[in-house]
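Example 9 (inverse folding). The structure is encoded as follows.
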């Protein structure tokens, strides 16, 4: 009996290529939440069913200890992983995929519940913006 990994976050859904990250920050649109700034960009994809790609950044300027930065990144990835299904409609347009970066912008460590609430809020904003555009450009 094979179990499907419905809530996984495989490497194919993580933004890691420098060229893709540079393109995202040069041409992406910005949204602001309580804890995060989000940059997103719709790009053409060669895959038949493209998945959105995401990355998380926590500035060293605000959190000197890597342990704390990694904690915040883990919390953010987990919240995204559990709620990425909210973007199913936003990313399902004809061969396009979304590249998303979450930038932690608060100078203090917040609880997982607060991180999750802000991620849900930002993903909801993204879905609304993409739904308003009839041609899928958001």
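The amino acid assigned to each position is listed next.
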């Amino acid at each position: 009996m094979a179990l499907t990994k419905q809530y996984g976050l495989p490497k194919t859904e993580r933004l890691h290529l420098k060229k893709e990250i540079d393109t995202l920050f040069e041409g992406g649109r910005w949204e602001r939440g309580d804890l995060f700034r989000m940059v997103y960009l719709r790009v053409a994809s060669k895959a038949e069913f493209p998945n959105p790609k995401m990355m998380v950044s926590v500035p060293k300027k605000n959190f000197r200890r890597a342990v704390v930065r990694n904690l915040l990144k883990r919390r953010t990835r987990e919240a995204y992983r559990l709620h990425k299904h909210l973007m199913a409609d936003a990313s399902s347009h004809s061969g396009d995929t979304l590249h998303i970066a979450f930038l932690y912008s608060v100078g203090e460590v917040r609880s997982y519940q607060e991180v999750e609430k802000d991620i849900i809020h930002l993903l909801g904003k993204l879905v609304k913006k993409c739904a308003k555009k009839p041609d899928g450009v958001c």
